[in-house]
Amino acid sequence: FSGISQQKTHEAELARIANYDLRTGLPNRRLLTDRLSQAMARAQRDGKLLAVAYLDLDGFKPINDVHGHAIGDLLLVEIGQRLKRGLRGDDTLARLGGDEFVLLLSDLDNPQACVASLERALDAVRAPASIHNKVLNISASIGVTLYPGDAADGDSLLRHADQAMYAAKQAGKNRYYLFDPERDRELEGHRAHLRRLGDALAA
Known about the structure:
By secondary structure, the protein is an alpha+beta fold. Helix content is 54%, strand content 22%. The strands form two sheets. Strands 2-3-1-6-7 form a five-stranded mixed beta sheet, sandwiched between helices.
């Protein structure tokens, strides 16, 4: 006979390291991928919408540069906890690394149903944070795409939300921007047309 408690504890620790971000305790990219595929299947089954929101902090690098990475890490933990408090039961918050987070907002009846959650996320980030007697102010840019209106696979949904996030930054930051799949198809058709013209000229 031998006790297996230590082995089970070790297995649980390995699973935590594999699936969760060690700094914030939030799901990492690997677990996010699994949760995203489940959420997509549930949205298809229930006839509901799924919002994939890519969140990037505005002005995080200067905080690291001025106050140091230790303060920056504590700010990331604080932001993660704030965002998590604003989630509903079936929603997911993950950290991809750096100052990038992803929100999965499930069980939406219409596109407007995610607006309140996105506004809560923006409010949570821009509220002043007190870290080691330093008051830090930061904001977020969020890109959002809606499945199955954006009928893409999981990786493409994340990429589309990332594209929309950059559009939010270009529009002035501290806001969210909705990805338009029809507009993206038009742009891709235009890019493909230009490539064909280039190939024709080269030939």
